Amino acid sequence: MKKLNKIAMFLLLVICGVGFTACGGGKDNDGKIEIEYWHANGAALTTVLEEIKTDFEAKNSNYTVKLVSYGDYDTLRDTITSAIAGGIAPTAAQTYPDHISLYLEGEALQSLDKYINDPTYGMSAAEQAQFIEGFWAEGVIYDQAGTRYGMPFNKSTELMYYNADIFAKYEWDVPQTWDEVIEICEKFKQTEEYAQANTANPGKVFGLGYDSEANLFITFTQQYGAVYTSFGADGKGVYNAFGGVDEDVLKSKEAMTWYKDQFVKGNIATSTAFGTDYCSDAFKAGQCIMTIGSSAGATYNDGQQSAGVKFTTGVAAVPQKDLENGQVIQQGTNVSLFKCANADEELGGWLWLKHMVSYESALKWALETSYFPIRKDVLASEEYQNHIKGNIVADDGSVVQGVQTLAAKAKEAGLAQSDWFYTNVAFPGSSKARDNAETIVQQILYGEGVSVDAAYTAAYNSIMND
Amino acid sequence: MGIIILLLFVAFVVCMLVLKKTNVAYENFQRCKRGNVYIENADELIRREKIVKVVRYIICYAFLAALALFMILPFYWMIITSLKTEVEISLVKPTFFPKEFAWENYKYILNIKNYQIETSGSIRFNLWRLMYNTLVVGFFSTLGTLVTTVMAAFAFSRIKFAGREIIFTLFLATMMIPGEMMVISNYITVVKYMRGIDTYWSMIVPFLISVYYIYLLRQNFKQIPDELYYAAKVDGTSNFKYLLKIMIPIAMPTLITITILKLMGSWNAYVWPTMVTQSEDMRLISNGLRNSFSDSEGRSTQGRQMAAATAVLAPLLIMFIFLRRYIMRGVSRSGIKG
Amino acid sequence: MVEGKKSVNFLRGILYLSPALILMAIFTFYPLFNTFIISFKEEYNYMTGKYAEWGFANYAKLFASGNIFRTCLVNTLVIVFVSVPLSIGLSLLIAVALNSIKPLQKFFQTIFFLPYVTNTIAIGMVFSVIFESHQGLANAIITEFGGNMINWLGGNIQATTIGKGFLDPNNAIFTPQWLTSMIVLMVYIIWNSLPFKILILLSALQGIDRQYYQAAQVDGTSKLRIFSKITVPLLSPQIFYLLITSFIGAFKEYTSVVAIFGNNAQSVGQRNNMATVVWYIYKKTKEGGTTMGYAAAGAVVLFVIIMFFTLINSIISKKRVHY
User: Does residue C26 belong to the interface with chain A, where contact is any CB pair within 8 Å?
Assistant: First the structure.
């Protein structure tokens, strides 16, 4: 069999000539070293990336960066895994935590620790401290030793959007805890707005809608003090909340039981219950007065865009079970470095990543996209503060007070909860956890007589046996 | 809802008109018949027969019209969605006709500027370049497929040699394995061993072969009577010339069908072309359109998606309407002589 | 048939086949051969090429109790044995109806071919509009006539399901929700496969010699008898051809499932209840570095099953098909 393989290979080699490189980049015509950076951004974000690249090449004259977009994250991941198998991985790439653990299975990623502590090329402790902790922590969740495989790049979080007009009319305070949310929901049921919405869409009106069912599961599990996933003593992944550790399962079940109770009472739901793709659609249609969704999607929750009654949208932090121990998801991608045969190229890749997360680049990215600043110094900077307040800086340097956009409000509110960001470990197969989190929530809320216990048992069985 | 009822009504009226026309012809025919043959109670019999016939026609047209409505719905939906605003699309209750026509979806899709990334003044990404690439890849992969298909079908249908049936069975068996299993292997073959990144051939060569088309054409070739071959042999025609001058012209409808189906395929190809190209200059139209499918915040914009789908479909549809006769004939040939 | 010496003809045949053979060898046979090999490697990591040992562990995993692969097999068989006969029967009816009318025939022909060129995203969207569990078109029509909303794709707790009385909601596979969602899937699959079938049957019908029908009419044979004794036997080669190709197609059903039920192949509130074999294969090629072996084993199992049914088909057809 080996022989046949060899013959096939030989034929191919004869046809096309031989060539092996470990990493995608290499020397280009001018004797400069080429760094390949693979990402999944569309045209609009690529334009911003291009500016960052031009800036990098001006500062590092012996490197060129080749930006390659694969359009969507799944194609990016599949191309990279195929490229790893073919020994032609890029120098650096945009990565989700699940992707990182997959590439690690392919033994293709370079630990950033190798460079981060380098006296010449590394990052000082002060510089590292500039990153927002929750984002920065996601780089070290891939083994027990805490080896760094990623640095944050485009990041977002979840927020609560609410119908500010209704809140103002009835003089309700914006809820900070889930108990307060339920109080508002009960009050909402007595209002004429509720009655009207319920006539239009009978049985499909709730106080609050949670957009992402998977995020709901993870966030509630965290808020109830349970561990979602972890590393076991043998270094392998453990699915704590699904059945791996009894104590965590109990807490997670308690959280889901509570959510189901409130769902049955008609207080809170997920997008499925409204019959819409996203909760934002139901929110704008008046089917709920609060919704939890991505901070990057603020404009979708703009009540001024409603096809029915137009209203002002307010933004607040995600409600908590315990304000002393806040837990909010942080999501988005990191940037990672691949192992290269050519040491110069690998170093160049590191320098490029370091440039991408530097103050200048991060500021540019935060100003020109809907993503969050990843650094505290960007956040504190005058430019950024003016940006989120909607202020306009005139040519002579004077600042004109402006109107804050909803997107800017969302950025501001999101940053206010940045101390609450949590991260979960990633390991081979941990992508199954997220799929199952979503299915559990759907089964508990919408399943045909599926009990909470049965949903968890089925999920754990699926994770372990399929 | 309203539009559906309207469509049903129109279909009904058309059916009735058609029925009336056929009825008149039928009555004329019966009148002639009555002149020649005398049957007792003829009027009653003919009347009954007529009623049966009319009822049959009504059922027939109603059946076809109802199914046609169902068949056309997705097509209709694609076009109206492309003309809706995003606000209207996201309504909880879907609307069956745009409240106001949103031409901006088409303006966006057809605006070249939206496909450009400007780097220090130079433009790197351009709609016409995408079109050109798609045409090059489509043209050569279709041409190549025709060559391999004709030659293989000729061998399978006209040349008797040892192992022919085994090879043919092997070819057919490959249809039974899902293509997902082959992508990684082929990526390594093309990219690593053949250095195929950013080349036209890497998007063409792996798709120059299709067992399905070989099967189709083989059935077609098999129907050509052997007498034609012997006649040609008497005239001293070589095998290759016989294939070129006699077989190919006879199988022309099938070849045109293959051409159209293949062009459609390369027009819609997405995953493989994305994987083997890195430079924006080498990408195909499907990649470019994909960029306009989601806005800067990452959520998909269905209006634009559908406008893009319609724009991509328009040339195919025009081709289909003009070549319908050939396609229908060509596709149907494959079924003859299982 | 081309005449000539055996050896000359062999060379000639291979020569004509060579472009196809070379391309197939590189882009089809080689990957397939790989798939077969991988299916016997335990914990095969496709990125590094490492594996634990040779053996049947991948196959054992597929058929172990509690594995989703069983559901996949059952669903796939249901799809094959329900959708294929139904779609062939329906397209036969349509083709006969189309053949019996004169005016508007071309117009209807064109309409029935439209799905062939329609974008798949658009088709998926329309199906979610029609069968949306709350206010979809199907439910709007049902409630208009005073019926209960039906929970087509799951997720509507107020709606009812088809088969609620006679199916056990706690069954491992055949729950009422399964039946309800399966109906939607069937409609989609049949709808998708109609254009090609209608086309083939219609043109075959048009090719039937009028003499057969005239003879029957003289004898005063009823329409139904004409259909079953003349039309169907004369169409048997086409019907057989469609049977084989749609069997293979239905066994490989996957895109339709993902288009309607998402990447997890489930109606809302259920777990992977719409999963098919190719869905499993696809899922396992993406899931992790070492799950490729399961996908490969699944592909081999599928291959064997399709082979088996294709063979049976051929044996039956030798007796039944009129040429």
Answer: yes
Handedness of CA C65, C66, C69, C70 (dihedral sign): positive
- Identify which of C66, C269, C290 has the shortest CB distance to residue A105: C290
What subunits touch chain B, counting only 3 or more CB pairs under 8 A?
A: A, C
One domain, residues A311 and A374: no
Ranges A174-188, B170-184, C20-34: which has the least confidence: B170-184
Assigned CATH for C57-320: 1.10.3720.10
Task: Provide the pLDDT for residue B328.
Answer: 61
Note whether C12 contacts B: Cβ–Cβ < 8 A. yes
Give, for A329, the enclosing helix (H) or strand (E): strand A328-337
Subunit contact C119:B78, Cβ cutoff 8 A: yes
Q: What is the pLDDT of residue B114?
A: 65
Hunting for tokens 């049914």 — which residue is that? C309
* CATH code (residue A58): 3.40.190.10
Which stretches of chain B drop beneath a pLDDT of 50? 1-5, 25, 120-121, 334-338
User: Does some domain include residue A404?
Assistant: no
Is A390 part of a structural domain of the chain? Answer: no
Domains in chain A: how many in total? Answer: 2
* Min Cα–Cα distance to chain B from A12, Å: 7
Of chain A, the percentage scoring pLDDT greater than 90 comes to 65
| Domains of chain B: residue spans and CATH | 2-102 (no CATH), 113-333 (1.10.3720.10)
Distance CA B234, CA A391 (A): 91
Q: Which of B58, B76, B70 is nearest to B12 (CA)?
A: B58
Domains in chain C: boundaries: 57-320
- Nearest-Cα distance to chain A for B101, in Å, is 16
DSSP assignment letter at C270 = S
> pTM for the full model?
0.86
Q: Which positions in chain A touch C26 (Cβ < 8 Å)?
A: 11-12
Average pLDDT rounded to a whole number, residues C218-227: 78
Q: Are A299 and A406 in contact (CB under 8 A)?
A: yes
Residue C43 CB contacts under 8 Å (≥ 6 apart), including other chains: C51, C52, C57, C290, C293
Name residues whose C-beta falls within 8 Å of residue A27's C-beta, 6 or more positions apart in sequence. A33, A34
Torsion of CA C124, C126, C128, C131, to 10 degrees: -130
The per-residue DSSP string of C105-140 comes to HHHHHHHHHGGGGS-HHHHHHHHHHHH-TTT-HHHH
CB A288 within 8 A of CB A205: yes
Contact indicator for C32, B181 with CB cutoff of 8 Å: yes
CA dihedral (C94, C96, C101, C103) positive or negative: positive
| Cα separation, A210 vs A438, whole angstroms | 12
What pLDDT, in 10s, does the model give residues A225-262? 999 999 998 888 999 999 999 999 999 999 999 999 99
Give the 3-state secondary structure of residue C41. Answer: strand
Residue of B nearest to C277 (CA): B178
Do the beta carbons of residue B1 and residue B21 sit within 8 Å?
no
Domain that holds residue A41: 16-155+332-380
Q: Are A445 and A264 in contact (CB under 8 A)?
A: no
